[in-house]
Amino acid sequence: MAKTQPTLKESLKYYFGFDTFKGDQEAIIRNLLNKKDTFVLMPTGGGKSLCYQLPALLMEGTAIVISPLIALMKNQVDAIKHISEDDNVAHFINSSLNKASITQVKEDIKAGHTKLLYVAPESLTKTEYVEFLKSVKISFYAIDEAHCISEWGHDFRPEYRRIRPIINEIGEAPVIALTATATDKVRIDIKKNLCILDAKEFKSSFNRPNLYYEVRPKTKDVDKDITKYIKTHPGQSGIIYCLSRKKVEELAEVLKTNDIKAAAYHAGMESVVRSATQDDFIMERIDVIVATIAFGMGIDKPDVRFVIHYDIPKSLEGYYQETGRAGRDGGEGRCIAFYSRKDLQKLEKFMEGKPVAEQDIGRQLLKETANYCESSICRRRLLLHYFGEDYPNDNCQNCDNCLHPKTPIDATDELQLVLKVIQAVKENFKSEHIIDIICGNETEAISAHKHDQLPWYGKGADKPAQFWNATISQAMLEGYIQKDVDNYGLLKLKQAGKKFIKTPQPFSVVEDVSFADDGYDDNEAHSGALDQELHAMLLDLRKKLSIEYDVPPYIIFQDPSINAMTTYYPITLEELQNIPGVGAGKAKRYGQQFVDLIRRHCEANDIQRPVDMRVRTVANKSLTKISIIQSIDRGVILDDIAMAKGLDFDELLTEMESIVYSGTKLNIDYFIDEEIDEDKVEEIYEYFRSSDTDDLETAMRNLDDDISEEEVRLVRIKFISEMAN
């Protein structure tokens, strides 16, 4: 009697140990088993890999899995080997293998042992592999991370464009394209480039209800904020994304200095180190990985509990993909992004020199990211809308905007104005131009198109641009307007929008979050205070003492020091010296009244002080500072000190400013007397004595033109040292 073939569910149970399929998995697998081209849009954690792994095990021949993530290849190959009795059932070919290993892989494929071959797109295009694969029975081609094909995708890779010609050369077989993130524009681009326009599509919901989304303003204290967050969630696995390798390494050092098990991970590291770091993370020898956004980690770890974006990504697709690494087991996942407009400016600067079309695409993607960050609307709703999915509720109960909602205001007339302007300019302009018309801004585009002659020009000048931006965003969510992505984001009226112009319905809007224009900068101080009541009292005390000592308030304590006091609540002179910018001298001279005030405030308001939350900074510069102090004490010329320390003169001045602002006295009269005219010294010194601020730009505007910035900085160091220390 013939042995009956196992059912699909029996095969699932046999190989993977699951009783049932998730979502569309079964339908996707059946489509592929029927040798039909397939397109799968499924969020991270939805079980994409099983959609090609199970059919590969069941079909005749070898499945070619094209993936850009070398790290993930090893993970998946190891996982497949664990579920099979044959160690040769899965292999990968990429740049990490030596010749002997590649020869062994080829022999296993020829012998018919290998059901899945993972290949990097760069490897697939090599002539030797193409020639070899021509002789192999291919069951199907799986293109993972298929969004890499599209220039509109968040991780475009030119080598992905060559996949279809290579497939044609190796030999025809069904194609399954899989991605966790793709807008309609990207989806069409993928299918067109892979020549699978007739592929059956399977689109899962992008909603990940277990993920909490939050955007925080990026301040000077961002390293401390992240450290405090991790310390309050001990033992949890997390990933932190940064834009630059330098920041990855710096932040990893800060975390390690604060007894957090963390490691850096980026493409500039040796592959052996990266591989070991990944293994340490998966095996929970470390808790946190700090990685560059540009490098796809491919971490297949289900219990990542938080994903933090130190820098905002270049697109919402990138953001969604990276946050998707959290909570893949269905448990809690917290996604926190730190946002500053300065980050956007940096990203725009990176685009300079690229082709104009690429710059236009990049700016549109950045604009979407900025809208997401600055909006007060439900973040889940915004994300899903971006991917063409409607979220039925106004409040998801699991994002910062929904848990702390702003009060909506009526904007029926304002929406009608927006819609009329879009109609008047024949739906040929982007939101920025529409807002310029409404606010009455004089721009070249406005003049060129004579839009300053429209009856609505300047009609909304009484409200800020961010209000109008929020109105347009809300109108898109409500279905009155749509953005034509194919035409650089031009705003088009939908049928409901045309109807609204004639017969308006009640419409309300929640104003966008206001982020400071200057945002965060590595060289700027953080000006935010957590405890506003205490902040006001500390400023009053500082003002009182400045009158008593006859010095400007900043001489006593600078604003960043005052702000830090509202976070850490120091109540002893020893604790006060942990505050940035407060050395022993300052603490002794001015500190007692401040700590007494803070103690009374804590007692009166029953404040739980975060005494165990002092975040240690990496002390790699402390030896340099000590050496500078000792050299100045000996009267060494400053240029020689800079040369000996490998610093340029500006960097030396920055170190010296840090020293005196922390309360240590530096006597540089021996250098100033030689280098700067006596009248200039007196003028600069007296300026700072009478000024309310020690800001350099303000000083340069108020002093004579023949005084250089370097001279001002030197005399300011002398002034702070003598007056404050």
Describe, in short, the structure shown.
The protein has 725 residues and is an alpha/beta fold. Helix content is 48%, strand content 11%.
Write the layout of secondary structure elements.
Layout: H1 8-16, H2 25-33, E1 38-41, H3 48-58, E2 62-66, H4 70-83, E3 90-93, H5 99-110, E4 116-119, H6 121-124, H7 127-134, E5 138-143, H8 163-170, E6 175-179, H9 184-193, E7 200-203, E8 211-217, H10 222-231, E9 237-242, H11 245-257, E10 262-265, H12 271-282, E11 288-292, E12 304-309, H13 316-323, E13 333-339, H14 341-350, H15 356-374, H16 379-386, H17 400-403, E14 409-410, H18 412-424, H19 431-439, H20 444-448, H21 465-477, E15 481-484, E16 490-493, H22 495-502, E17 508-509, H23 532-549, H24 553-556, H25 559-568, H26 573-576, H27 584-605, H28 622-633, H29 638-645, H30 649-661, H31 669-675, H32 678-690, H33 696-702, H34 709-724
Parallel strand pairs: 1-6, 1-7, 2-4, 2-5, 3-4, 5-6, 8-13, 9-11, 9-12, 10-11, 12-13
Antiparallel strand pairs: 14-17, 15-16
Helix pairs in contact: 2-3, 14-15, 18-19, 18-22, 19-21, 23-25, 23-27, 30-34, 32-34
